[in-house]
Amino acid sequence: MEKVECIVVGGGLAGLSAAYGLAGAGAEVMVLERGDYAGAKNVTGGRLYVSPIRGFYPELWEEAPFERPVARELITMMGDGAHTTFELASDHLVAGPPQSYTVVRARLDQWLAEKVGEKGGMVVPGMKVDELLRKDGRIVGIRAGEDEIGADVVVVAEGVLRLLAEPAGLAARPDEKDHALGYKEVIELPAGVIEDRWNLNPGEGAAQLFLGTVTDGMMGGGFLYTNKESISLGVVVGMHAMKADGREIESHQLLERFKELPQIKPLVAGGTVAEYSAHAIPEGGIAKVPRLYGDGYVLAGDAAGLSLNALVTVRGMDFAIASGYHAAQAMLRAKAAGDFSAAGLASYEAALRDSFVLKDLETARAYPQFMEVPRLFRQYPTAVSRLFEDVFTVGPGPTPPLVKKAWRGVKRDFLRPSTLQDAWLARKL
Ligand SMILES: Cc1cc2nc3c(=O)[nH]c(=O)nc-3n(C[C@H](O)[C@H](O)[C@H](O)COP(=O)(O)OP(=O)(O)OC[C@H]3O[C@@H](n4cnc5c(N)ncnc54)[C@H](O)[C@@H]3O)c2cc1C
To answer: What distance in angstroms lies between residue 142's CA and the mean position of ligand 1's atoms?
Structure first.
């Protein structure tokens, strides 16, 4: 059997980040990617938080093909017949090195694959791995069709579905309760139109999240990211929530309906749909992260459940890149020690525990449970709009004092036993 030092399964951000680190240090690495090119099959909403990963491979981020630095953050609460948008426009978001950029994965992943190649790593597109090979209890390589290739270490970065990791006993089968489904379109619009519609300086970008009627009250939300000459528009909904409500909504119906909402229609007017995609997202949080290493393997990125939906921030790509980086460092330490057993690779999980990846997931431990609160996705977005309606309304008779109007709304919609119960749960967020 042909043998290399390291096989990386999956040319997404986790796999490519691991390969870049390994190849850069002179290790022999082969990335096997089932898509026609790295990024061909990959879906994201569209915003990469670069601040957490800038320290890893700092030479990369200056020249990465990002779309726009995010200078405006918007959150829209969509109620029945009304919506409220909170908007933050801050120089601090883009002063100095921006904290986050919108991205198009087909572009970003292909570029990173080229960088791996420049460092001497091999990226093989169009190669689907069918099985992780085990011998005497340890992972010793992969099978792709008729080909078997051995490796000292396999970096399993196959993404969310774990079609290889689960049968090999490296991680549990994804449970629908811990996953959401995202549906997305890329809609082309001229740069000037994007800047006018989101009130942006030339070159700057906006990120907009939507809660409420967008998912018909189900766990989830909508997103919109402005790219250079397109927008990424999508809906994410909990798989469990969709089933529990017994709905028969097809993917295209959710997204189509979102686009038809009066709040969205003017934003996409005149645009041309260039791309449609659907993808699962791990949302189980830290409680569902499996053991990240074993004899001859490490798990990275979505395959390891490293993703975080914290309502106002959605992250996964920075975790994927960070886990790839730490996987490479652990593999290099194992190589130096000549020990590719679980003990030799244990420093991978230890490094992730010391880093923002597992620390942030630990901080956010309560989110998956909080996301189960049904009122979050219908009642509260409507209540917020009703509160502002009260505040802004001048009726036919005398107008009550502002604070009294607001307090009436708070008492009506927020000082209820169920809301106080939710607030109690929210204290851990
Ligand atoms: C709708 C949606 C919105 C999101 N929004 C954001 C966001 O705004 N910000 C953010 O940071 N994160 C976001 N995420 C999460 C983020 O996209 C993921 O966390 C990230 O892509 C994970 O990277 P990865 O490399 O682990 O997996 P992937 O990007 O899924 O890469 C896995 C790779 O493995 C390949 N592969 C799989 N099986 C095999 C096989 N058997 N053989 C060979 N190759 C294989 C695939 O083709 C793919 O290239 C979003 C996700 C979705 C779906």
So the answer is: 20
Adjacent-strand bridge partners of 372: none
Q: State the Cα angle at 300 between 13 and 363, rounded to 5°.
A: 100
Taking 3-state DSSP, the helix, strand and coil percentages for the chain, each rounded to the nearest 5, stand at: 40, 25, 35
Distances 105 to 37, 56, 67, 260 between C-alpha atoms, Å: 11, 19, 10, 26
Q: What angle do CA 20, 26, 30 make, to 5 degrees?
A: 55
How far is 274 from 87, CA to CA, in rounded Å?
A: 28
141 strand-pairing partners: 133, 150
Distance between CA atoms of 186 and 423, rounded to whole angstroms?
36
End-to-end Cα, the chain, rounded Å? 50
At 95, which amino acid appears?
A
Whole-structure pTM value: 0.96
- pLDDT (tens place) for every residue of the chain, 429 residues total: 899 999 999 999 999 999 999 999 999 999 999 999 999 988 999 999 999 999 999 999 999 999 999 999 999 999 888 999 999 998 888 888 999 999 999 999 999 999 999 999 999 999 999 999 999 999 999 999 999 999 999 999 999 999 999 999 999 998 888 999 999 999 999 999 999 999 999 999 999 999 998 998 888 999 999 999 999 999 999 988 877 756 666 656 889 999 999 889 999 999 999 999 999 999 999 999 999 999 999 999 999 999 999 989 999 999 999 999 999 999 999 999 999 999 999 999 999 999 999 999 999 999 999 998 989 998 999 999 999 999 999 989 999 999 999 999 999 999 999 999 999 989 988
- Whose CA is closest to atom 10 on ligand 1? 315
Domains and CATH numbers, the chain: 2-67+103-172+290-354 (3.50.50.60), 177-282 (3.30.9.90), 370-426 (no CATH)
Question: What would the two tokens of residue 344 be?
Answer: 């030799």
Q: Coil, strand, or helix at residue 135? A: strand
Q: Whose CA is nearest to atom 14 of ligand 1?
A: 44
Name the one residue in this structure whose structure tokens are 């951000």: 13
- Give 294's strand partners: 297
Across the chain, which distance is largest between two alpha carbons, in Å?
87
Q: Residue 412 in 3-state DSSP?
A: helix
- Which residues' Cβ are closer than 6 Å to ligand 1? 9-15, 32-35, 41-48, 128-129, 157-159, 164, 182, 184, 234, 236, 279, 281, 301-303, 307, 314-318, 320
Residue with tokens 């119960």: 421
